[in-house]
Design a protein that fits this description.
By secondary structure, the protein is an alpha/beta fold. It contains eight helices and 30 strands. It folds into three domains: 41 residues, no CATH class; 106 residues, Immunoglobulin-like; 310 residues, 3-Layer(aba) Sandwich (Rossmann fold), CATH 3.40.50. The strands form eight sheets. The protein has a nine-stranded mixed beta sheet with strand order 15-14-16-18-30-29-28-23-24. It has a five-stranded mixed beta sheet with strand order 7-13-12-9-10.
Length: 514
């Protein structure tokens, strides 16, 4: 290769060794050839010779046409599989065979502008169960690529009282396929993606506990030193690209995993399935387009890590909650904390580092806000109001602990340097402690002390506070577990399971699936 030209892996932006240039063709073992007619750019992106795909949208309903775009040098089989516990047994949907077709990747602007790969259109059959499904592309060599597709309720069926809003916008903001997400930027090329140095993490942690992010960001804006709206952290993130390994698409839901992305949303849905609860499922991004999504519901559940919300998403959910009596049930941590803009093709861009700086305040809906001081910790909860209806049937007393285990847990020795989007960016990439109250957590803000009751609190310092607000007039009730790790406790901790069932029952949303 000519001096000064860098060949990068299209997915990771890591430097590729052993690259050759012959008669205008750039070639490397395990990658597709790339042809140039003139002078080579300073950075070249090569696509692996392996199946890869993306779909054109976050969600679809039975009967909708879905575009599946792919790159595969052999013929391949396409199927649709519901991501669920193996014991659930939903049949796989055969979407047919596709011919070999390889996609191209631009050398610049991949993550902002998206891809334009060859594609096929498939109509979703009727009768599909709502949930997170995986579009799977299996080539002649047995290699498999996956992309998530949230399947909504069949329009032919009756409207569900309960809607589950999975955190697809957060998946997108953490998707590092192409070398950039909302947290790391390697598009210029690096030898190995890395986490921040230890001194920076320690300094950030101390500063977060001393001065919370909201007043800190306001001060930066007054001083003119806030770069969050002009730096790469606010650059667009396309939906039209494959998914990085950090989502662990298709991983077994019964096994522990240190993951706050799609795998966590799927675990919460698996718990609902086990209890036979009837629900509709949608991406929270759907609220940006569909103003009727939350209309007529008794409750909406936010799952996993529901951090990124647009103004339209926020306003439409707030309207159903405040004017139509809909309950908000927050099974998420670090919820509605940052604001995004959503383009027509579902490209997202962070337009406000903090939702509250836009004039919308997540604590008015949830009572809680993200607590930086509790980042990366995990612990059980301790009861503060033992005789509340949320704890009915549990026999818990003041100070009793529950939620000691969660399947969102440390499952490996961790890492010293490499960034993993699914893991916390602690010094080791592991959680400090274990339990249902952790990973990223929220706490009640001072001005909501009268409106929201703290029912339980993490044992770990600065940890999650579980809160509730009763319905009043046209406004529905609100309940928040205020923790990412909580969703992983539902199937393994009886107290966590029972109290959420109590909340669903109080909201009138514990209907059995037909």
């Amino acid at each position: 290769m000519p001096e000064g030209v860098l060949a990068l892996d299209a997915e990771t932006a890591v430097t590729i060794p052993g690259v050759e240039l012959r008669a205008g063709t750039v070639r490397a073992a395990g990658y597709l050839d790339k042809h140039y007619a003139g002078t080579l750019p300073s950075r070249i992106r090569l696509l692996r010779d392996a199946p890869a795909l993306y779909v054109d949208r976050p969600s679809a309903s039975p009967g909708d046409d879905v575009e599946i775009h792919y790159s595969c040098s052999t013929g391949a089989h396409v199927s649709l599989r519901r991501w669920e516990l193996e014991t659930t047994g939903t049949p796989e949907v055969d979407l047919g065979f596709v011919q070999p077709a390889t996609g191209s990747v631009p050398d610049e602007g991949l993550v902002a502008d998206g891809l334009a790969w060859p594609g096929v259109t498939r109509r979703l059959p009727g009768g599909l169960r709502p949930g997170i499904w995986l579009v799977e592309l299996t080539d002649d060599r047995g290699e498999v690529a996956r992309a998530p597709l949230v399947v909504r309720r069949d329009p032919a069926s009756t409207r569900a009282a309960l809607v589950i809003l999975v955190s697809a916008a957060t998946w997108q903001c953490y998707n590092d396929w192409g070398g950039r997400n909302r947290y790391r930027n390697y598009e210029a090329g690096v030898d190995r993606p890395s986490s921040p140095p230890r001194y920076r993490r320690l300094l950030s942690r101390a500063l977060a506990r001393a001065v919370p992010e909201v007043p800190r960001t306001r001060l930066k804006r007054r001083l003119g030193v806030d770069r969050s709206q002009t730096s790469w952290v606010s650059w667009p993130l396309t939906w039209r690209r494959p998914w990085g390994a950090g989502l662990e698409l298709g991983s077994p839901l019964a096994e522990p995993a240190l993951n706050h992305l799609a795998s966590l949303d799927a675990r919460i849905l698996a718990w609902l399935d086990e209890h036979g609860i009837d629900y509709d499922c949608a991406a929270e991004l759907d609220l940006d387009r569909d103003e009727t999504l939350s209309v007529g519901r008794r409750a909406a559940v936010l799952t996993g890590h529901s951090e990124y919300w647009s103004a339209r998403m926020f306003d439409r959910l707030a309207r159903a909650h405040e004017q139509q009596g809909m309950w908000l049930i927050n099974l998420s941590g670090n919820t509605m904390y940052r604001q995004i803009e959503v383009a027509d093709d579902f490209t997202v861009r962070m337009c406000n580092l903090l939702t509250v700086l836009s004039g919308r305040d997540e604590t008015e809906l949830l009572g809680v806000r993200y607590s930086e001081g509790g980042y990366g910790t995990a612990s059980p909860y301790a009861v503060r109001v033992p005789h509340h209806w949320v704890f009915a049937g549990l026999g818990l007393q003041d100070g009793d602990r529950f939620g000691a285990i969660s399947t969102v847990a440390n499952t490996s020795p961790g890492y010293a340097a490499v960034y993993h989007p699914e893991r916390p960016t602690t010094a080791t990439g592991l959680l400090h402690g274990s339990g249902a109250a952790g990973f990223e957590v929220d706490r009640r803000v001072r001005r909501q002390r009268k409106a929201f009751t703290v029912l339980a609190e993490a044992v770990a310092p600065h940890g999650a506070q579980m809160v509730v607000r009763e319905p009043r007039g046209d406004r529905g009730g609100a309940f928040s577990v205020s923790s990412i790790s909580f969703g992983g406790a539902l199937r393994v901790d009886p107290a966590c399971s029972r109290l959420v069932l109590n909340v669903l029952r109080r909201a009138g949303a514990e209907e059995a699936a037909g």
